[in-house]
Amino acid sequence: MNELPDAGTLSHVDAEGRARMVDVSAKAETTRVAVAAGLLRTTPEVVALVRADDLPKADVLSTARIAGISGAKKTSELIPLCHQLALSSVDVRFGFAESAITIEARAKTKGPTGVEMEALTAVAIAGLTLHDMVKAVDPAAVLDGVRLLTKDGGKRGHWERPDATRPEDGAVSADSFAAPTPDLDAPAHREPATGAAHDRAHTDHPAAGAPPQPKAVAPTEHRQRHAHRTPEVQPARQQAESPESAHPAPGGHHGDAAYGATHSGEGSRTAVVVVASTGVAAGTRVDKTGPVLTEWLAGLGFSVRGPLVYADAEIAAGLRDALDGAPGLVITTGGTGASPSDATPEATLAVLDRELPGVAELIRQRGTAAFPLAALSRGVAGLSGTTVVVNLPGSPGGVRDGIAVLEPLLDHLLAQVAGGGRHE
Q: Could you give the CA distance from residue 74 to residue 206 in angstroms, rounded to a whole number?
């Protein structure tokens, strides 16, 4: 929980080599945040039981989460030279890989010393609690890879683990402390697409120094490093627009020059991304799919507007907004599940002139190959005038599936809609 020492020194050892508690009274009181991670290696059967809440000791994740939070609060009692801290918050989250449960903890305080040990302790205690909960089925489970990912605050500001990676390849996170990178290498295991689960985030977790896990190869790679920070989310409707897209042409529509129009027969290289999420619109949830889609489309040469964020109940208005100016492509993410609030498919069908059922079905098939409950997604695809509209699930895993299906089809589909393309 103290600042990282200079090279070659140990802050908790005095000049005579004796253990000491560091005097932090002269340090500035700043906001300190630390994120740590780890994973419990177990069997695919145990992972399935935990996800289904079907172990002899029920409420596995809830119990482990509370234990991790309690452990962070007791760090100074467990680690003898740590200072007592007034923690502002502790958040513990879990994810799933084929044979592992991933753990991430984020601790925050305002004070003269950091919260690294609190975040690490939360991960360790949560992991040990998971082990206790699953040991009746798998006594050989292993708690592994407990490590600090990032720290912020204090004299050194932001520090990030050099590899800046996550605990396990192919992991599916029920939540996450950072916007996901558009990593298409990882298999898309997912939470059930019903209720709130369709909006849960799926992130990739390669372990630092951990044995590599099998990876599925997808059509393209968009891998980059991101700091593990919680992005600032503005409440209500949000738009991350380019300067051109923010200023419509006279008449209320986007002009051809700003909106990337092409000659007839080539297909319009304009796109709008719409996020259907009541939580993101309210500022209580981080948008983890819209930025992935906008980055992917921009990489394909599209002029992209968005992501436009709307609450589930307002997605019809969001689609009307997206269709303004007749872009070549509109992709929605979220609101495709079976929850009563999920309304994206119905709002989309109301604006479609023709459906493209094969596209939606192919996206579902790709999802169900890894996770059968992906079949519960009700997303549709079709044409609204000359605009291609595609619904994707509200999870990063579902978006990865959509990207993998759409990328080889987009050029030909857009060209056909514009009156060109091959028809054989």
A: 29
Q: What is the mean pLDDT of each run of 10 residues along the chain (424 residues)?
A: 49 67 71 93 92 73 94 89 86 91 93 88 96 94 94 83 55 44 34 35 35 33 30 34 34 36 57 94 89 93 93 95 94 94 96 95 90 89 96 92 93 88 53
Q: What are phi and psi of 174, to 5 degrees?
A: -65, -25
Token code pair at residue 53: 């809440």
Residue identified by tokens 């002269």 is 26
Inter-residue contact 71 to 126 (CB < 8 Å): yes
SS3 content of the chain, % helix, strand, coil (to 5): 30, 20, 50
Q: For strands 100-111 and 30-41, give the pairing.
A: antiparallel
CA distances from 369 to 188, 190, 195, 364 (A): 9, 11, 21, 9
Active-site annotation, residues: 132
The predicted structure's pLDDT at residue 421: 54
Residue 392: closest CA among 339, 336, 347: 336
Question: Cα–Cα distances in Å, from 195 out to 298, 336, 363, 416?
Answer: 31, 10, 20, 36
Residue type, 15: A
Tell me the one-letter amino acid at 376.
Answer: L
- pLDDT computed for residue 193 by the predictor: 35
CB 331 within 8 A of CB 390: yes
Residue at 40: amino acid letter:
L
- In the prediction, which pLDDT does 12 show? 61
User: Under a CB-based contact definition with an 8 Å cutoff, are residues 374 and 364 in contact?
Assistant: yes
Q: 406 φ, ψ to 5°? A: -75, -35
270-276: strand order across its sheet: 238-239, 303-310, 270-276, 329-333, 387-392, 381-384, 354-355
* pLDDT value at residue 205: 35
Tell me what pLDDT residue 15 has.
67
The angle at the Cα of 88, spanning 32 to 94, to the nearest 5 degrees, equals 90
The answer to whether 336 touches 401, Cβ cutoff 8 Å, is no
What is the gyration radius of the CA atoms in the chain, in angstroms? 24
Sheet with 172-173, edge to edge strand ranges = 159-160, 142-152, 30-41, 100-111, 87-97, 172-173
